[in-house]
What we know:
With 273 residues, the protein is α/β, with parallel strands linked by helices. Helix content is 44%, strand content 13%. The chain has 9 helices and 8 strands.
Amino acid sequence: MKIVLQLFLACSLLIVAGGLSAAQPNPAGVTQASPVVLITGSNRGIGLALTKAYATAGWRVIATCRDPSRASELKELAAVHPNVVVETLDVTSEPSITGLVEKYRGKPIDVLVNNAGTSGRYEGQIPGQFDEATFTEIMRVNAFAPLRISTAFLDNVSASEHKKIIAISSGRGSVSKPFLERRAYFYDMSKSALNLGMRKLQSDVAEKRVLVGVFAPGIVDTELNNDLRNGVPAIRKLISPEESAAGLVALIANLSKENQHRFQNYNGETFEW
Length: 273
Ligand SMILES: NC(=O)c1ccc[n+]([C@@H]2O[C@H](COP(=O)([O-])OP(=O)(O)OC[C@H]3O[C@@H](n4cnc5c(N)ncnc54)[C@H](OP(=O)(O)O)[C@@H]3O)[C@@H](O)[C@H]2O)c1
C-alpha cells in the first residue's frame, strides 16, 4: 500500500512539473516562448502606452522605471497582466544599469526600447541663458544613456530571436528640417546626437545580426511635450500616447536590415536625418 502511495505521489509530481515547464499559453496567450521587450521610462507617457500595447499583444514586458513606488498606473497594469514585470532602472545611474544587467544575465531580450527622455529645464536652453548643467543633464539622459543601455544589454538582445534595439528620438533632432523655434536648443541637439550614435551602433552590432531602429513618436500629448512648449499652444493637434505606441509597435515589427537606415515617424513618414 505504502509503495502504491509513493508511486502515485511521484507520478503526480511529474505531471505537475511537466505542466509547469511546458509552454502552455495563459489566457492572454503568453508562454515562456513569447518574445520579450524591455522598455525604459515605462511609468508614463509613450513608455506606458508601449507597455500596454506589448502586454495586450502577449509579449513578456520588462517595464523599467526609475521609481516603481511612484509608478501607480504601471503597477495597476502589471497587476492585471502577469506578463508585465516592473523593474527599477535609472538610465543615468551606472549601479542601476549594472544591477539590472546582472539580474537578466543570460536571458534573451528580443526588443530593447530606449524610450526614457527629458525635455530639460526650459529656461536653461534659450539663447542668452544657456546653462551648462541643463545641457549636461539633457545629454546624459537623451544621448548617452540610450547608447550605454544598448551596449549593456547587447548580449541579451543578440541571444534573442528578434534582435532589435530601438531609440525613441524626435523629428526635432533632424538637422535638415526647417527650424521654427529659438527654444529647446539642448533637447533638439540631444536627439541629433542620439541619432548619430544609433547610426554608428548599427554598423557595430551588424556582425551580431542585431538591428537598430531610430523612430520619432509623433507630437504626443505627454508631460514632456507640455514642458517643451512651456505654455505655448501646440501648432498641430497632439496625438495620444496610445496612437503613437500603436504606430511605433508596427514600425518595430517591420524593422529590417533593408530599412533600418531610415529615420521614420510613428506613421511611417520618413524624415531626413
Ligand atoms: N511627447 C512628444 O511629443 C515627443 C516627441 C518626440 C519625442 N519624444 C520622446 O519620447 C520619449 C518619451 O517621452 P514622453 O513624451 O512619453 O514623455 P514623458 O511622459 O514626460 O515621459 C518621460 C519618461 O522618461 C523617464 N525618464 C526621464 N529621465 C529618466 C531617467 N534618468 N531614468 C529613467 N527614466 C527616466 C520618465 O520617468 P520619471 O517619471 O521618473 O520622470 C518618464 O517615464 C522621450 O525620449 C521623448 O524625447 C516625445
